[in-house]
Design a protein that fits this description.
By secondary structure, the protein is of the alpha+beta class. It has a single domain (25-154), classed as Alpha-Beta Plaits. The chain has helices at 40-46, 59-72, 74-77, 116-134; strands at residues 26-37, 53-54, 57-58, 88-96, 100-111, 142-152, 158-159. It has a five-stranded antiparallel sheet with strand order 4-5-1-6-7, covered by helices on one side. A hairpin with a 3-residue loop joins strand 4 (88-96) and strand 5. Helix 2 (59-72) packs antiparallel against helix 4. The longest helix is centred in the C-terminal third of the chain and has 19 residues, at 116-134. The protein is elongated, with a radius of gyration of 18 Å. The mean pLDDT is 87.
């Protein structure tokens, strides 16, 4: 692969922010998902509702707020990311199967560049918040994977074909 194929490198392989000034403003959407594997001790504390309260508040509610804040701050966290005014960030956490918590982050913006990184960062920080709030019960919590599920808008759309959940 040549340096020209990496959009964040110039012809001399130096880092650069991609110039999106001439791109068309369109509605951009992205969905990312993180899977968290939690041990029985944590699941028992979560109960059937899936929402455990801690001294910081509802674990899922705090994770949603943390993930939303992170998505809005992506340009501060990931070098060379564009600062994008987001129209919407929606984070959902739910239990799936015996040991999983799923974090899903949907981001929308009307802009010149996509919001994939914002969705991925939102999911990641929400999952890390679940870990932080549950680690007193167990350090055997595993954040298994974070991946882009779909993106639309711009020059090409993407849909992950084998969504493992």
């Amino acid at each position: 692969m040549t340096c020209a194929e990496f959009t964040h490198l110039d012809e001399s392989s130096s880092p650069q922010m991609v110039d999106v000034g001439l791109k068309e403003v369109t509605e951009r959407r992205a969905v990312a998902r993180t899977i968290i594997d939690v041990p029985d001790k944590v699941l028992t504390a979560l109960g059937s509702s899936g929402i455990m309260h801690s001294s910081k508040g509802s674990i899922f509610d705090v994770a949603i707020i943390a993930g939303t804040q992170a998505a809005k701050k992506t340009a501060d966290l990931i070098p060379l990311c564009h600062l994008i005014p987001l129209d919407s960030v929606k984070i959902k956490l739910y239990r799936e199967g015996d040991r999983r918590i799923i974090v899903e982050c949907r981001v929308k913006a009307t802009h010149r560049t996509g919001v994939e990184m914002e969705a991925l960062v939102g999911c990641s920080v929400a999952a890390l918040t679940v870990y932080d709030m549950c680690k007193a019960l167990s350090h055997e919590i595993v954040i298994e994977e974070t991946k882009l599920i779909e993106k639309t808008g711009g020059k090409s759309d993407y849909f992950f074909e084998n969504t493992k959940t």
